[in-house]
Amino acid sequence: MTNWRDSLLEIAASARDLATFQDRATDVLATAGEGPAVISAPGPSGWRVIAAAGPGAVSVPLELAAEAIEAERPLSGDGWQATPFRTPGAPNYSALVTKFKSPGITPIEVAEYVRQLMGVVALTASATRREQHLESLLAMFSAWTQSSDTRTLLEQMAADATRAFDADRASIFVWDRANKLLIGRPALGLPNNELQLPDDVGVVGRVVRTGKPERVVVAETPEAVERSVDAQSGYVTQTLLCVPLVDSQGDVHGAFELINKRGGEFTADDEEGLGEMARLAAIALDGTTHYEELLRRRDALVDAAAQRVRLLGECPAIVALRSAVTRVADTDLAVLVLGENGTGKEVVAQTIHYGSRRREEPLIAVNCAALTETLLESELFGHERGAFTDAREMRPGKFELAAKGTLFLDEIGDMSLGGQAKLLRVLEEKVVVRVGGSQEIHTDARIIAATNQNLAQRVRERKFREDLYYRLNVVSLELPPLRERGEDVLLLADQFLTNFCKQMGRKKPKLSPEARKRLVSHRWPGNVRELRNLIERLAYLSSSDRIEAEEIAFNLSPFDSSEAGLEVGLSLAAATDEFQRDYIRRTIKSQHGSVTDAAKQLEVHRSNLYRKMKQLGMEGEE
Length: 622
Fold this sequence. Notes:
- By secondary structure, the protein is an alpha+beta fold.
- It folds into five domains: about 5-125, GAF domain (Beta-Lactamase); about 145-290, GAF domain (Beta-Lactamase, 2-Layer Sandwich); about 315-480, P-loop containing nucleotide triphosphate hydrolases (Rossmann fold); about 480-550, Helicase, Ruva Protein, domain 3 (Orthogonal Bundle), CATH 1.10.8.60; about 565-615, Orthogonal Bundle (Arc Repressor Mutant, subunit A), CATH 1.10.10.
- Helices cover about 45% and strands about 15% of the residues.
- The strands form six sheets. It has a six-stranded antiparallel sheet with strand order 8-7-6-11-10-9, sandwiched between helices.
- Strand 17 and strand 18 form a beta hairpin.
- Helix 16 crosses helix 18 (about 525-540).
- It starts with a helix and ends in a 7-residue tail after the last helix.
- Residues about 560-565 have low confidence and may be disordered.
């Protein structure tokens, strides 16, 4: 039996599990010893042959192996020799049973050598299994960390656990300490695929309270399992393994449970492996829960911001504007918002943004009137470090910051022609290049532009590029001045007064009828911004529960005299007639062309108003 040691050593070096080694080892021993070689070990129902080779191996006397192991020494009988040995780490003895014909072969020597090699193979197999287990855990954990939804994550964890441990079912229980509940998912056969238990019930309750794992065979300890769960689901629990979900601080947040091991009972190795999986599961759950909480907070902030931004008003122009905003909000169309200063163009931009699918992304506003030619590229497109004297660090531009969101270009009519050309190129190519850089950066920011100027007139005057005008003016929305919105003045005033008084913590005062009339009759050259400032001043300075007309002091506008349409040099009678004509026209316009409503506003009978208009030469204007 020359070189049998080298042959067995070679087999041990290449084998990755005991079964492979034992099969090939008996082949070598049977061939070299010219007789049968059998390795046997105790099993659940008696002795069993693990590996056998050689003529006559099928008739091996297993009782001889049992006797040798019981005696803990080699025994012989009918030409057979049984040598007991114990593999390192194995709970029981095994036995090498041989019937060698070759001289010089000592079964004790062979068994000892086989034992040593089996120990090496067992360690190698254990290390291999450990490596594969860790690789599998890392792959699972990597997949878990990609999930942003707790319910989906729990179902994915359960599926991975049943596959890894050959179990029938798995559930992850989250501990709601405040309500003393354990909430488990997935829970097949139950409503909403969810199970809720008191945190002091059953195996899971004990595990979360003690922080110690449990393995249960129901046939042996039927009282350990909460049978009401099986009654609800119609499922029968036979074996169970449960370990705590512990975070990095050592706090228990729930439990990981496996039910019904296929083909046997859960082992100590299963318990250790599930414990490792549970530690990674706790980390992944914490990350996903934190992410969901951030999403909830973000959504709450977005909703709160959207609630603060409202296009208030019931005049026909505002009603039509709101309808148009609703239609274009959830598109990617470029929008041009027109209107005088202070009419609320930024509010329109915010309403469009918060009404779109981009509402959770940034809304970035840029005042184009404040950008000089030299600053425009850096502000809009960003710059690299060292691109110019003061560029001490890289800074992204507004187009990058507004990626996937909305870019609001206010006062676009005041942008220089050079800036317009650069802006047009970005809008057409959808890429920006930082100042001092060379890398093209894609941008899909939605563009909303606004101006108080007549862009068409500026195009005719060659002060605004025609191609940029058409690029921006896909959808045009125009805000009416406040003086043309009639009773909307009172609606806005009441809302502003409510907001300011809430901030101050004071009771909201009421506007007297005279004060309301004065607000409606004012021309509001500063539009909604002027009204807001006036109401803010009244909210802070008025001390009574009623605001009188005398308290309403309008700021003088540098355009007041021209807006009244009066020329210096007129006689008092002519100036009076001119003022009356202008005031009647504005009142009728504020009432949307209704002479009847204008007469009520002026506190005269309609027939008297018609008579006055005739006296002033206003026939047909009604």
